[in-house]
């Protein structure tokens, strides 16, 4: 598949008509139609329902839209970074779990951009499980992960310190006056918890619980929206990390015994890092406190 033809296909998908896409691409409609038919022949599937006005995508076409967007984004970023090798410029794409430890990364990025104003950053938040796939596929340059256990497969920097895990609760929760939350108390109330299996497995194991003992009402990917749940349910325990929510209506209670998460910045093994990526790692190393 040629990137040029994928761009043609995306133009049709976005505009809804061959006429509008041809005008946008500055090609003739017959030429555009011919290129799309060749693409369908190459792939062995129909991508567009041409009898509909505007045209609609087949299930295979819908799938290709997302894949094409990702491939073109990677290609464009690669070209930008290669062409910028002389002057440290380009795009750094970082995936990150929600954690206050990420402040070290922000500090490093800020100082890097102060010295190299033509550097831009794309930040994608999410669970390590979701983002690791994107790193392996080349959509991310770096991934900041919590409690990462596959370090042998990547290059990495461990961060000093740790995040404290516990629960966010409504100020009117029955446990509001408790200094910390025990495993037994965790089983007595409904909980909302990360959908990331590694987070939950280590949490349950370290607290001496079985997953079946928890009354799980919600599994979340990012805690930002989930934080609204304990605001309306004063019985709910929202499992998370200290500092990631700043809401005066909620209280944070750590677990007892203490339960912590460690942080690691990882990237794929390669002897050919771009000057931009090498410089980012250098700035990040300088930003991290000495262990």
From TrEMBL:
Gene3D superfamilies linked to this entry: Periplasmic binding protein-like II, Winged helix-like DNA-binding domain superfamily/Winged helix DNA-binding domain
UniProt GO cellular component terms: cytosol
Keywords: DNA-binding, Transcription, Transcription regulation
Stored InterPro entries: HTH-type_LysR_regulators, LysR_HTH_N, LysR_subst-bd, WH-like_DNA-bd_sf, WH_DNA-bd_sf
Domain HTH lysR-type: 1-58
Record bears the keyword DNA-binding: yes
Listed GO MF terms: DNA binding; DNA-binding transcription factor activity
Top-rank taxon, per record: Bacteria
Family: Belongs to the LysR transcriptional regulatory family.
Protein name: CatM protein
Organism, as annotated: Weissella cibaria
């Amino acid at each position: 598949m040629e990137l040029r033809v994928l761009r043609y296909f995306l133009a049709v998908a976005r505009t809804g008509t061959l006429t509008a896409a041809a005008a946008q691409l500055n090609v003739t409609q017959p030429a555009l139609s011919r290129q799309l038919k060749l693409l369908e022949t190459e792939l062995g599937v129909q991508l567009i329902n041409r009898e509909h006005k505007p045209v609609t995508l087949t299930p295979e076409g819908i799938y290709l839209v997302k894949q094409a967007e990702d491939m073109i984004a990677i290609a464009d970023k690669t070209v930008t970074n290669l062409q910028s090798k002389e002057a440290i410029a380009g795009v750094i794409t970082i995936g990150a779990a929600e954690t206050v430890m990420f402040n070290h990364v922000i500090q490093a990025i800020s100082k890097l951009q102060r010295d190299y104003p033509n550097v831009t950053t794309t930040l994608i938040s999410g669970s390590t499980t979701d983002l690791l796939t994107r790193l392996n596929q080349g959509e991310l340059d770096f991934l900041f992960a919590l409690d990462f256990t596959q370090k042998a497969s990547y290059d990495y920097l461990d961060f000093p310190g740790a995040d404290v895990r516990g629960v966010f609760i409504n100020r009117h929760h029955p446990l509001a006056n408790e200094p910390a939350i025990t495993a037994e108390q965790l089983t007595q109330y409904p909980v909302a918890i990360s959908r990331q299996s590694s987070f939950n497995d280590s949490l349950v194991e370290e607290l001496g619980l079985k997953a079946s003992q928890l009354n799980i009402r919600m599994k979340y990917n990012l805690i930002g929206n989930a934080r609204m749940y304990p605001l309306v349910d004063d019985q709910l325990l929202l499992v998370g990390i200290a500092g990631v929510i700043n809401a005066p209506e909620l209280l944070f209670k750590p677990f007892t015994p203490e339960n912590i998460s460690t942080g690691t910045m990882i990237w794929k093994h390669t002897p050919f890092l771009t000057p931009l990526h090498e410089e980012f790692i250098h700035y990040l190393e300088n930003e991290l406190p000495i262990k």
